Amino acid sequence: MVQKKKFYITTPIYYATAAPHLGTLYSTVLADIAARWHRIQNIPTFFLTGTDEHGQKVAQAAQAAGKEPQPFVDQFIEPYKALWRQYSIEYSHFIRTTDSYHVKAIQHWISDLQKKGDIYKGTYEGWYCTPCETFMTEKDYEKGQQNPPCVSCERPTSLVQESCYYFKLSAYQDKLLAFYRENPDFVTPKERLAEVISFVEGGLQDLSISRTTISWGVPFPGDEQHVTYVWADALNNYITGVGYGQQGKEKEFAQWWPADVQVMGKDIVRFHAIYWPAFLMASGLPLPRKLLVHGWIKVGEHKMSKSRGNSVNPQELLNDYGADAVRYYLARQLAITQDGQFTRQDLEQKIGSDLANDLGNLLQRTTMLADKLGFTTLTVDAWNDEEKALYGQAQTVIELFDKEMERGFYHLALAQVWQLLHHANAYFHASSPWKLAGKDDVACQRVLTATCHALHTAGILLWPFMPQKMEQLCERIGRDYQPNQDLVARITQPWTGSFTIRKGDALFIKPEPTVVAEQPEVKKEESYIGIEEFVKVDMRSGTITACEFVDGSDKLLRLTVDVGECGIRNIFSGIRAFYTPEQLIGKQGIFVVNLKPRKMMGSISEGMMLTAEKEDGTITMLTPAVGAKNGSRVK
């Protein structure tokens, strides 16, 4: 692990027009996880989030509500902060673009670029999207097209003609392309950067950064007829939030900037990967090291949004399942490399299988057995080969976990921890410490102590994701969570020391399953298909990391599959008569990953495992002839 001097992470700033939704929670949880991962290594960390409170969209929403803009936006700040507190989100600073220091810093920034010749006055005529605060470029629509759809939200745009100030974005086209070439990891995942490069190579037009038809915004310095256009105002929050343009905060700004990671959804990557670097280049400031760009949360076939009526209230999820379970699900189930499906049924299944069974049950079995046998303190003088192997597995997991966290692939980092938990559960079951009690108490204590070490390792690695529950876990085994220390370095040391066992309730409770209406089956027609239909099927290699029987079914097994960049999938397969869960764990197979999610036995199946039927009627899973990287496309 490379020790860093500091870590600075940001979220997008969210429009202050409504209470936070699941999408804003998702971005913020990802940033909080990264911040906590660095704090737990005792690395100085700054985490910035906040609200975007200027612009036409906000002004129109305030007018519709019958309020002035400032009191309108004020009413949403406490709901944001309250929900973040409830979800254990520990930001360092909450910025509002109406904060006076931010307004003054933006005016300073504009004046500085005017002196350098990077901002000039002109006239704008073109199509504009109010919800996205986006001006369309000529390559975004066909010539003569009326009210073309916005490239981001697909809503119709409106024709705008007015005097404005421009930023010389076109002057930075070659510099941006050179930067992308020199920094191929600037955007994660890389596919997003390819889209950005393609856009820039198509030619950049100068960017309008002021408006005269609205008054709600940062007053443009030296021209009272104009207010600063939202992106020139909003993007700069990332530097004003750590002291830019503020007298007496020069050292603070030098300490934190540039940002190490900036988290955002894919719909705003263009602004952050093109406009934002160009602004910084013009100002002579370093560029952020990485943009972590995640996909959309989808409910059914569509992106979750209030306008579609398919949004999910994070407060209701908190009330029903608890903060840590929701945090875990968002990070584990929704791979940043693609859009992710959200269902309550799948959330409940993950709480039951991953959290209650794999993690919580192992803790409960270990501590209850130790308490029953009177082993309030567990200690070991020497390890056998089985425990040494478990320790080696733990060290491998820590190393791989760190690499995935550094990449921003949190779903794969979590998959590594579950590999350790699967090994620990298998070790505990095979060693059967309950059978050793009274016959070989030394061996019994050795098994219980090694299991506690594995649980402690998992608890530290999982703390960024589930801080409340993992602090409870550490307390139950007598390794209380202690901040301001490098706890990751501690779990990489040889397994020594004792554990003080404390009784307690189950760490996670399986929720009562949500009942959903059965969907009518659609009769399939047998027919030939053309190659154009076949190529739509996305088949990938994947490794089964967990497998379990499905209650109420004598045919199905529930598989947890690591499909690499396609994430961790919950897949049902009707092969229970031919395989046991133990036979499948660790096996690599071929899976269809773009199959429409289907409700099965109260949960959601997110793909299909390919199998073949032998002449005797037995079913066998198809596997790659040579081991392939998880997520490799089958062609």
Explain this structure.
With 635 residues, this protein is of the alpha/beta class. Among the domains are: 344-500, Isoleucyl-tRNA Synthetase, Domain 1 (Orthogonal Bundle); 531-621, OB fold (Dihydrolipoamide Acetyltransferase, E2P) (Beta Barrel), CATH 2.40.50.140. The protein is built from 21 helices and 26 strands. The chain has a six-stranded parallel β-sheet with strand order 3-2-1-11-12-7, with helices on both faces. Strand 1, helix 1 and strand 2 (45-52) form a beta-alpha-beta unit. The model has no long low-confidence stretch (mean pLDDT 90).
Q: How many DSSP H or I helices?
A: 21
Q: Looking at CATH, which topology of the domain at 344-500 would you report? A: Isoleucyl-tRNA Synthetase, Domain 1
Strand content bin: 15-25%
CATH superfamily of the domain at 344-500: Isoleucyl-tRNA Synthetase, Domain 1
N- and C-termini, Cα separation: 37 Å
CATH class descriptor name of the domain at 344-500: Mainly Alpha
Approximate shape:
globular
Mean pLDDT: 90
